[in-house]
């Protein structure tokens, strides 16, 4: 099992590019120990008779049919955009 100590918290602080105060480090240390303690408790649960569950969803997802739908008011859509040029909608570029 991993050893939870102040050196580990400082190492994680450095990796995460954080600057914690001494009290925040102590709080983090306590939280991590509490979380791992809970995980240890879960490791003690006997699951030998339990079948593994790979997903909580038992039924397949029903998808709607892929059907083209015509829209009569294309001009209303164009009018809702702030910029247009030669019948085309102008949008901001995605490059920097």
What can you tell me about this protein's structure?
The protein is mainly α and 96 residues long. It is 41% helix and 4% strand. The two termini are 46 Å apart. It is flat and about 65 Å long. The protein has a domain at 6-43: Histone, subunit A (Orthogonal Bundle). A hairpin with a 2-residue loop joins strand 1 and strand 2. The longest helix has 22 residues, at 22-43. Strands 1-2 form a two-stranded antiparallel ribbon.
CATH topology of one domain, anyone? Histone, subunit A
How many β-strands, per DSSP? 2
Oligomer status: single chain
Strand order of the largest sheet: 1-2
CATH architecture of one domain: Orthogonal Bundle
The major pleated sheet works out as:
2 strands, antiparallel
Give the helix tally. 3
Report, as a whole number of angstroms, the end-to-end distance: 46 Å
- Name the average pLDDT: 88
Radius of gyration: 28 Å
**Approximate helicity band:** 40-55%
SSE order:
HHHEE
Shape: flat
């Amino acid at each position: 099992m991993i050893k939870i100590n102040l050196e580990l918290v400082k190492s994680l602080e450095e990796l995460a590019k954080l600057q914690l105060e001494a009290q925040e480090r102590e709080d983090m240390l306590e939280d991590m120990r509490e979380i791992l303690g809970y995980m240890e408790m879960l490791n003690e649960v006997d699951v030998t008779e339990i079948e593994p569950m790979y997903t909580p969803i038992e039924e397949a997802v029903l998808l709607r049919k892929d059907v083209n739908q015509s829209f009569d008011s294309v001009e209303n859509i164009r009018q809702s955009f702030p910029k247009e040029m030669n019948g085309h909608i102008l949008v901001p570029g995605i490059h920097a």
